[in-house]
Specification:
single chain, Rossmann fold, globular, alpha/beta, DiNH2opropionate_NH3_lyase, TrpB-like_PALP_sf, 45% helix, pyridoxal phosphate, 4-stranded parallel β-sheet
C-alpha cells in the first residue's frame, strides 16, 4: 500500500518544541553525550552499487546501525541517552549547580543515582538501551517485556543487570503496564512513545536518533535525494525526517515512511489523518516494528515532514535480509535484522511499481539513503531466516558471492 502525504499540516513549520528538540541544537546535545562514551564510534555507511544498478537508481547508501554502541541497534542512541539526561537534570536540581555531560561520574551524583530506577516497555532493543544507560550511570532498571519478545532478546537485556518483568499481551499492553508499575513503585518511565502529558522523555529519545542523520550527512559526498525509513511507533522516522528538513530546508530529500503491512499504525494514521490504533492480527516477522498505535509526537512531526507512507510484507523483509547477506555486484555483506531492512524493502517495492517510483520521482539520478536500524539482535531468528549465522555473513567478501 502507498499514500502520498495529503495532510492539512503537510509542509507547514514544525512545532517549536519539536524543531528545538530535533534540530541542530538537539544534535549538538547528543553529540556531546557521545563524546563522553568510550564505546562510541560513528557507524559505517555502506555504498551498494550492485543493488543500486539492479534498482535503476544512481546511488544507494545504507547507514548500518547494527554496530551502534555494542547493542546492535539504533535504539542504543535513544533510551540510554534519555536516562543520562534525566539523571543530570535531577542532580542539577538537587545540587543547585550546572553539571557537564560526564557529571554522573562524580561521587555525589552517583550517590543520588543509586536510588533511581528507570523503567520501560520494550520489544527488545529499547529496553536494552535503557538498561545499558542505567548501568552506565549507576541506576537500576526495570524492563517490562510482553509475550512476543524472544528469550534471546530478553537475555540481552538482562546482561545489563536489569530486572525483567514479563506481562501478557502486545507491546502496547506492556506500555500500559510499565506506566502502572512505575506509578506504584516510584520508577521513572523512559518510553519511546508519547501520550497526553508525557512528551518530554520520548522527545529526548528521538533527539538521540538525530546523531544518525548528522553522521550520515558527514559521510555522504552529496546529500540524498530520497530517504526510506521504517516506523514502529514512528520515533526514528520522525527524528530523521525532522532533522533533514531542519538542516537542509528546501533541499531536503523526498522522505518515505515504511511500515510492516501487519502493524501499519503510521500508514493508517496517514490514511485517517490522525493517530489511530490498528487491530492486532497475525504477528509480523519485523518484531521491533510491531506497534499498533503511533506516538502522538512522532505523528505530529511526520504529518508535516514525511512525503509518503507505504507498507511492506514480511516476505519483502526476509528477501532483503538474504540479499544483504549474499552480496553481488561489488556490494559488501551486511547483517540486516528483520526490522532493520524494512526501509530497504520499501525501496525495493517502490522500484518494482512504476506508479510509486514515478510518484516519488525515483529514477537513474536518484541518490537514496536507507538505515539498517538493527543487526542480528536475535541471532537464532536471523539464522533461521537467512540460513547463515551473523558471523558467517560478516566473513563474506563481495568477490566471494558475485
Amino acid at each position: 500500500m502507498f499514500l502520498l502525504n495529503k495532510h492539512a499540516d503537510y509542509r507547514t513549520a514544525l512545532d517549536p518544541v519539536d524543531a528545538d528538540t530535533l534540530g541542530s541544537a538537539g544534535a549538538d546535545a547528543i553529540e556531546r553525550h557521545l563524546a563522553q562514551r568510550v564505546d562510541h564510534a560513528a557507524t559505517p555507511l555502506h555504498g551498494l552499487p550492485g543493488l543500486a544498478s539492479e534498482f535503476g537508481i544512481g546511488t544507494l547508501h545504507v547507514k548500518d546501525e547494527g554496530h551502534r554502541l555494542g547493542l546492535g541497534s539504533f535504539k542504543a542512541l535513544g533510551g540510554g541517552y534519555a536516562v543520562t539526561r534525566l539523571v543530570l537534570e535531577a542532580a542539577e536540581a538537587q545540587l543547585g549547580r550546572s553539571l557537564g555531560d560526564d557529571a554522573f561520574l562524580l561521587p555525589e551524583v552517583r550517590a543520588l543515582v543509586a536510588s533511581m530506577t528507570f523503567a520501560c516497555a520494550t520489544d527488545g532493543n529499547h529496553g536494552r538501551s535503557v538498561a545499558q544507560g542505567a548501568q552506565l550511570v549507576g541506576a537500576k532498571a526495570a524492563i517490562i517485556v510482553h509475550g512476543g519478545v524472544s528469550e534471546e532478546r530478553i537475555a540481552a537485556i538482562a546482561r545489563f543487570g536489569a530486572q525483567i518483568v514479563r506481562v501478557a499481551g502486545t507491546y502496547d499492553d506492556s506500555i500500559v503496564e510499565a506506566a502502572r508499575m512505575a506509578g506504584e513503585n516510584g520508577w521513572i518511565v523512559v518510553s519511546d512513545t508519547s501520550w497526553p502529558g508525557y512528551e518530554r522523555v520520548p522527545g529526548l529519545v528521538m533527539q538521540g536518533y538525530t546523531a544518525i542523520v548528522r553522521e550520515a550527512l558527514k559521510q555522504l559526498l552529496s546529500a540524498p535525494t530520497h530517504v526510506f525509513v521504517q516506523a514502529g511507533v514512528g520515533g526514528i522516522a520522525a527524528a530523521v525526517a525532522a532533522h533533514l528538513a531542519l538542516v537542509l530546508g528546501e533541499d531536503r530529500p523526498v522522505f518515505t515512511v515504511v511500515d510492516p503491512a501487519r502493524a501499519a499504525c503510521i500508514f493508517e494514521a496517514a490514511r485517517a489523518g490522525r493517530p489511530i490504533k490498528v487491530a492486532h492480527g497475525e504477528p509480523t516477522v519485523m518484531a521491533m516494528l510491531e506497534c499498533y498505535e503511533p506516538s502522538p509526537i512522532a505523528w505530529r512531526v511526520l504529518s508535516r515532514v514525511a512525503d509518503a507512507f507505504m507498507t511492506v510484507e514480511d516476505a519483502d523483509a526476509v528477501a532483503m535480509m538474504n540479499r544483504l547477506a549474499r552480496p553481488t555486484g561489488g556490494d559488501p555483506a551486511i547483517v540486516g535484522g528483520e526490522s532493520g531492512v524494512a526501509g530497504l524493502a520499501g525501496l525495493m517495492r517502490a522500484m518494482a511499481d512504476p506508479a510509486i517510483a514515478g510518484a516519488l520521482g525515483l529514477d537513474g539520478s536518484s541518490r537514496v539513503l536507507v538505515i539498517n536500524t538493527e543487526g542480528a539482535t536475535d541471532p537464532v531468528q536471523y539464522e533461521a531466516l537467512v540460513g547463515l549465522t551473523p558471523d558467517a555473513v560478516r566473513s563474506v567478501t563481495p568477490q566471494a558471492r558475485v
